[in-house]
Amino acid sequence: MAATNTSADAAQMQHINAQLEKLGITDVPSLENVQLFPTVNPIDVYRAQIIKKVQEITGAEPKVIDNAVQWTQDLKHGDLCLPVAALRFKGKKPDELAAEIAEKFESPLVQKPTADKGFVRFFFEPTALAQLTGPTILKQKDQYGFNSSLGHTDPSDPNSPQKLVIVEYSSPNIAKEFHTGHLRSTIIGGFLVKLYERAGWKTLSMNYLGDWGKQYGVLSQGFDKYGNEDALKEDAVKHLNEVYVKINQDNYVEQKPANELKAKIDDLKKQKVPPKPKKPAKGEKPQPVPEHKWTDEQEAELEETIKKLQAVLKELEEKPSIDEKARRFFKRMVDGEPEAIANWQRFRDYSIEKYKDMYARLNIYFDDYSGESTVLEEDMERAAKVMDERGLTELSEGAVLVDFGKHGKPKLGKTLVKKRDGTSLYLTRDIAANSERHDKYHFDKMIYVIASQQDTHVAQFFEILRLMGSPYSDIVGKCENLSFGMVKDPKGQTMSTRKGTVISLADSLDDVHNFMHDVMKKNEDKYKQVEDPEGTADILGISSIMVQDFSGKMANGYNFDMERMTSFEGDTGPYLQYAHARLCSMKRKSELSDSDLANADFSLITAKEGIDLVRTLAQWPDVFNNTLKTQEPVTVLTYLFKMSKALSSCYDAKDTSNKNAKTMSVVYAESPEKKVALMGLYESARQVLANGMKLLGLTPVERM
Ligand SMILES: NC(=[NH2+])NCCC[C@H](N)C(=O)O
Questions:
Q1: Cis before 471 (ω within 30)
Q2: What angle (nearest 5°) sits at the alpha carbon of residue 105, between those of residues 100 and 108?
Q3: Does residue 114 sit in helix, strand or coil?
Q4: Cβ of 502: how many Cβ atoms within 10 Å?
Q5: Which amino acid residue places its CA nearest to atom 11 of ligand 1?
Q6: What is the bridge-based pairing of β-strands 202-209 and 164-168?
Q7: What values do phi and psi take at 72, rounded to 5?
Q8: I need a surface site. Which of 311, 449, 468, 627 has the fewest CB within 10 A?
Q9: Is ipTM over 0.95?
C-alpha cells in the first residue's frame, strides 16, 4: 500500500519559486492559478501563466481555460496549445479570437504565441524552461511527474483520507495452465496498481484464484492415482497440472464408450424423422421431398435397436465414473468435510507458494489471495434470496436461471445461477464476492482485469448486481471491468491446450531469459562487469515480454513473438533498457556526483536537440496525468520511446548556435561547466526514463 507525502507540494512550490527568482522572473502570475494543479511541476507554472494571461485577454473562466489547454503531439506545433473553440466563446470567430490572444499575449516564460487557424500555439522560452525543468527533475528524482494528491478524497487537502482501489488481477486456476492470458492480466494489473499508487491512492492487489468446483474433485482422484509428494513440494503448479491432464485423459477414455453410444443413438433417432425438404436457393425451384419409404417392420426394428442401446447406456452411466465421483467429492468439500478439504488445502497452499516465486520475478506482490473457494455459501444464499425476491430468477428443470430478455437486456441471453444439484457456479461466486469485498474493505473503486473472452460473463454479473438494487447496485457502481485482448502465437493463431500450443508462463520466462543471457555473453568485457548476469538476463527477458504486451491498446490482442520482442531495434524492452544502461554508464564515466549535478547550469544547453529533449522531459507530468485518464500503459510507453529518440539525437548533435561549442558529448565538453550541464541533462533524462519504466513495472538495469 502506498503512503502519501503531505508536505511535498508545498516544498515543490517553494523550490520552483526559488528557481524563478534566480531567473529574475517575477511576473509569474503570483502563481495563483497553480492551485488548480494538485502537484506543482514546471509544466504547471507554464499552464498557470497561460491561464492567467488568457483570462485577462478573454475573461474566460480559469477552469475552462485549464481544460482547453492541451499538449501537442509534436514539438513543432508548440509546447502547449489552445483550441480556442473549447473556450465556448460566443460572438467571435475562433480564428479571430486566436489571432487576438496571440497578439496580446505577453509573458517572460513564453515566446510570442502563433495563431494557427483556431489554435494558439505556445512555445516556451527555452533557457528558462531548461533552468526550471532540469533542477526540478534532479531534485524530485523518483517523485518527478507523479501526482500524489489525486487519490485523496479532497485533492487540495493532503490531510484528507486516501481513497482505496482494489485491483483484482492474474487470478489463475489451480492445476490448470498459467497461460499468456493470465500473464497479461498479471502485468496489466501490476501496472494499474503502480499507476494508482503514484496518484496517491491506497491500493490492494487481489488475486482471485480459480480454486473451487467439481474439477478439484477430479484433481483429488488424480492425485491419489498419479500424485507424488516430493514433486508437489518441488513445483506444485507444474505437478498438479500434469496430474490434472492425466486424470482428464482417463476421464475421457472412461466416458468414450458412453459418448460414442450417445452419438449412435442420436444418429438412429434422426433416421426415424423424415428428412426435411431443403430450402431452395434464390431463383431455384423447390426440390421434391425424398420419400420416406420405410415399412412398419423396419420402423419397429429401429425402435428396438434404440431401446437396447439406451439400456446399455444407462448401465454405463450408472457405474460410478470419475466424473460422478468428482461430483460427490466436491459436494463433500462444499459441506466442509475436513477429510475432503485436507488435500485441496495443501494443493492451494503449495500452488500459491510457487505462484509467489513467479510473481516476484515480475516484481508483483499480492495483498490478498482470495479465490472462488473463499466465497461463503451463506452469502450466495443471501444473494439468491434477493434475486428471487426481485423476480430476477426462474426455475427451469430444477436449476435456477436469469433470463435477461425479461429484464430489458436481451443481448445478455440467459444464464444459470444455480445448478440442479444446488451447487454454485462461477457466476454465482462472482456475484457474492463483489459485496463480500466491499464489506471487508469498503473500497472506493474496484477494477477487474479479465480477458475479453469473458466480457459476456462480466456484463452478466454486473447487470445482475444492478438489477438486485441497493446495496448491490451501489457497490457495482464503483466497479470497472478492464478487458484485454487475446495473446496469439507468432502466426496469429489462437493458442490452445489441446493443440499443445499454449505457452506457459514458466516456459516463456525461461525462454526469454536464455535468449537475453546469450545476447549478453556475446560481449565478454561488459558481461564480466555485470554483477548478477542471471538476474539481469531475467529482467531483460521480462522487459521484452512486458513492452511487447504494452505496445498496443489493452483491448487489442497481439502475437507472442519471441524474436521481435527481444530485438534491440525498434520499440522494444531491450531498447529501453539499453538506453537506460547507457545513461548509467555515462554517469559512471563522468565521475560526477549528484551534488555536482545539483549545481548544473542548464542555461548552457543551447543546441536544438538539447532544448527539444528538455521540452520533452517537461511533458512527463502531463503524460502521467493523461495516463490516469486513459489507464493505458501504451500512453507511457509511447512517450518513453519519443523521449528516448529525442535523447539519442542528442548524442551526436552539434550546437550550431555557438561557434565554440562542441558536440553534446560529456567527454568532449568544452568546459567543466558545460560537462556538468550536459551530464545534468542526461541524468534528468535517465531519471524520467526510470520513472516511466518503473511505472510500467519494469526494473531499469544499470549495466547489461
Ligand atoms: N472475478 C473474476 N471472474 N476474475 C477472473 C477470474 C479468471 C479465471 N480464474 C480464469 O482463469 O479464467
A1: yes
A2: 170
A3: strand
A4: 17
A5: 172
A6: parallel
A7: -105, 155
A8: 311
A9: yes
Residues whose CB falls within 8 Å of the CB of residue 518, separated by 6 or more in sequence, listed in order:
none
What is the grid cell recorded at 446? 474496484
Q: How far is the CA of 171 from the centre of ligand 1 (A)?
A: 6
Beta strand extents in 84-153 (DSSP E only)? 114-116, 119-122
Give the closest residue (by CA) to ligand 1 atom 3.
Answer: 430
Q: Could you give the CA distance from residue 632 to residue 635 in angstroms, rounded to a whole number? A: 6
In this structure, the residues whose C-beta lies within 6 A of any atom of ligand 1 are: 168, 171-173, 208, 210, 430, 448, 450
pLDDT band for 1, please (50, 70, 90 cuts): very low
Mutate to test the pocket of ligand 1, among 454, 465, 484, 505 (most ligand atoms within 8 A of CB): 454
Q: How far is the CA of 210 from the centre of ligand 1 (A)?
A: 7
Side-chain half-sphere exposure of 594, counting CA atoms within 13 A: 8
Three-state secondary structure string covering 400-435 = EEEEHHHHCCHHHCEEEEECCCCCCCHHHHHHHHHH
Ligand 1 atom, smallest distance to 210 CA: 9
Question: 176-185, 378-387, 410-419: lowest mean pLDDT where?
Answer: 176-185
> In angstroms, rounded to a whole number, what is the distance separating the alpha carbons of residues 174 and 172?
6
Rg (CA), the chain: 32
Residue to mutate, 167, 168, 171, ligand 1, most ligand atoms under 8 Å from C-beta: 171
Confidence band for 317, pLDDT divided at 50, 70 and 90: confident
Provide the whole-model pTM.
Answer: 0.87
| 275 secondary structure, DSSP code | P
Distance 487 CA to ligand 1 centre (A): 16
What is the tens place of the pLDDT at every residue in 224-273?
Answer: 999 999 999 999 998 999 999 999 888 888 888 888 889 999 888 887 76
522-527 own/partner pairs: CB under 8 Å, 24+ apart: 526/703, 526/704
Distance 448 CA to ligand 1 centre (A): 9
The pLDDT confidence band at residue 647, using thresholds 50, 70 and 90, is very high
Q: Give the residue carrying C-alpha cell 498496443.
A: 552
Q: List residues bridging with 116 in a β-sheet.
A: 119
Active-site residue set:
176, 179, 182
Ligand 1 mutation target, pool 179, 208, 464, most atoms within 8 A of CB: 208
Exposure string of 70-81, with b = 16+ CB inside 10 Å and e = fewer, is ebbeebeebbbb
CA distance 109 to 126: 9
Contacts of 246 (CB under 8 A, 6+ apart): 222, 225, 226
